[in-house]
Amino acid sequence: MAGHLNSEQLNHEQLNKEQLDSEQYDYDLFVIGAGSGGVRAARMAASKGKKVAVAEERYLGGTCVNVGCVPKKLFVYASQFPELFHASAGYGWSVPAQPTLSWAILRDNKTAEIERLNGIYNNLIDNSGADLFDGRATIAGPHLVTVNDKAYRARTILVATGGWPYIPEFPGSEHAISSNEMFFLDDLPKTAVVVGGGYIAVEFAGILNGLGVETHLVYRGPNLLKSFDREMSDKIKDGMVAKGVNIHLNTEINEITKTSTGLSVALNNQSDMQAGLVLYATGRQANTAGLGLETTAAVMAKNGSVVVDDNFCTADPSIYALGDVIDRVQLTPVAIQEAMVLVDHLYGEGLARIDYSDIPTAVFCQPELGTVGLSEEQARAEYQDIAVYVSDFKPMLQTLGGGADRITMKLIVDNATDKVIGCHMVGEHAAEIIQGMGIALKAGATKAHFDATVGIHPSAAEEFVTMREKAR
Ligand code: NDP
């Protein structure tokens, strides 16, 4: 019995067990899904000398690289040129009165760049020493993965299969497309209807509008981006309307029918809209269908996401999961951080923990949103006494360039501790600026720290260190 062994004998026993395990298993870690989280976990584990496999059925780099963050940001850049062309006149430039867009060039250049990134991911996996399987992997039981008709035994299986767009079923829903297809359209439509009020809906409404498509954003609720600071989301709505997006709040689609010229969209307010494209951006669901998790003790929530503990372990000790498939925070950098924590748990000191508070995030709508910490609504609910500082001004570009854009910045301070507990910005470069604010909030910066920081002039960001007047 182990209780009768001294520590040396115990170490021997441990050693023998490890030897036995490494003979028993083909891999220490078998990662299913080569997205941001899966690839990071695979590379980190391989760098620790573990025998690692990664299986991917679709594209290397996952949603973010292929049909998410990266191509989306390229499209955002593309959609911003008309305003820049307009502004350039005040700076002495002449551009044609009607600059034209070749959607085919934009789409194909984007695809070429994504293929370049796919290659980089391939090299990263290769160079790490992990084996890459090009095929759909399924779980056949604890410690058992099958891919391309072969079974592999793994000490640990990591499910990093991400999410997939969700489109509700209703009459004609088969005519709607998701963000996946937006990246590969044959042509841009003249008119588009975008459905939803979250990240993807507002981002694509801005892209389509900027690319010259008459854009209608249809949202069932009263406020876009409802989980963000209300003052900020109202500014975004006003900014989007000023740029030409037609926003229909408290509105739903009853039916879509195909017509000889495109699609007819029947709304619940008895009106119809004609459009060349209907994009549903109504959330994403965990990619677990047919994965074989039911052959193990792992548990899935009602929405299909995998239930894990603080160490990303499922109810089956051989199966872990992270990233969008666990339905915590669907953001690439969060999946990457989760992967680092997991590898530390499995193969390191096991001390790393993920902190889901104060995650900085940006929505690349137009105007752009950057935010970290609590919204004013959350702060009022959680804190007794807060101070709110708001600054609203015209970006400097407009002095010569014209245009209607504004920048709004907001700090929320807990008066009891002077700590800044919320930091928000709507306007140009908000994502870039808020990343640094994220470090400040993580470090527990107080309003006094902000006030003692020297500004960078002339910049929009300097407003964050020069706000002195409380708005509320
Ligand atoms: P979100 O969860 O952000 O928004 C979904 C929207 O769809 C909500 O407004 C929701 O309305 C609405 N909706 C849901 N079901 C229906 C329905 N049956 N009929 C009509 N409307 C419906 O999801 P997204 O698809 O926009 O994005 C998915 C995730 O991807 C985001 O949560 C985010 O984490 C990530 N992402 C991050 C980006 C970034 O970092 N910049 C960019 C893009 C995506 P309601 O509010 O009423 O429920």
Question: How would you explain this protein's 3D organization?
Answer:
Helix 2 (36-47) packs parallel to helix 9. This protein starts with 6 loop residues before the first helix and ends in a 6-residue tail after the last helix. The chain is an alpha/beta fold and 472 residues long. It is built from 14 helices and 21 strands. It has three domains: 7-65 and 106-164 and 285-347, FAD/NAD(P)-binding domain (3-Layer(bba) Sandwich); 173-282, FAD/NAD(P)-binding domain, CATH 3.50.50.60; 361-465, FAD/NAD-linked reductase, C-terminal dimerisation domain (Enolase-like, domain 1, 2-Layer Sandwich). The strands form five sheets. Strands 1, 2, 3, 4, 5, 6 and 16 form a seven-stranded mixed β-sheet that branches. The longest helix has 26 residues, at 103-128. NADPH dihydro-nicotinamide-adenine-dinucleotide phosphate binds at residues 168, 195-201, 203, 220-221, 226, 281-284, 330-331, 361-364.
